[in-house]
Amino acid sequence: MPDRHRANPFTGYNFRFEVDGVGEAAFREFSGLTFEVDQVEYRDGDDPYLHARKQYGLRKFTNLQAKRGITTDLQLYNWWQEVLNGPPQLRDGAIVLTDELQVDRLRWSFRNAFITKWEGPSFNATSNDVAIEMIEISVDRVELTLAAA
Fold first, then answer.
1. Cβ neighbours for 99, distance < 8 A, ≥ 6 positions apart
2. Element counts in the chain: helices (H) and strands (E)
3. Is the model's pTM score more than 0.85?
4. Each residue of 73-108: pLDDT tens digit?
5. Would you say 96 and 15 are in contact if contact means Cβ atoms under 8 Å apart?
6. What's the CATH superfamily of 15-33+64-146?
7. 29 pairs with which residues across the strands?
8. Integer Cα distance of 16 and 120 in angstroms
9. CA distances from 124 to 4, 127, 129, 134, 135 (A)
10. Which of 49, 42, 60, 48 is nearest to 140 (CA)?
């Protein structure tokens, strides 16, 4: 007999992007939730073992990349202008995964972010592709939490 109370996995297309000071920003694709810890090899000079010990080192959070359709809302571009004219206002934000009913389920909160790259759309008169812009966002830290339901 099948389990009728089976939890279905969340789908990757139900997400929302939030940044302090920026209104709604709809993105088609979001990537870069990659976190690493450097390993440091260390060996005392009088250590009886002939191998290095491994310890953890610096934590790294890769830049986030957001690809979206063109919009006439200039709030993200104004943030980019702050970076160009300096010093940028560091902002906090989140990528929120929702379920099919648009209820928040998981939240990747990031801290001290600023835009490091702005890529305009590609234009091709023989193509029917949507004009997509891409921004890359540098972050200090990312934390995953369960969203308050």
1. 10, 14, 105
2. 1, 10
3. no
4. 788 888 899 999 988 889 999 999 888 888 888 999
5. yes
6. Hcp1-like (2.30.110.20)
7. 67
8. 21
9. 50, 5, 8, 17, 20
10. 60
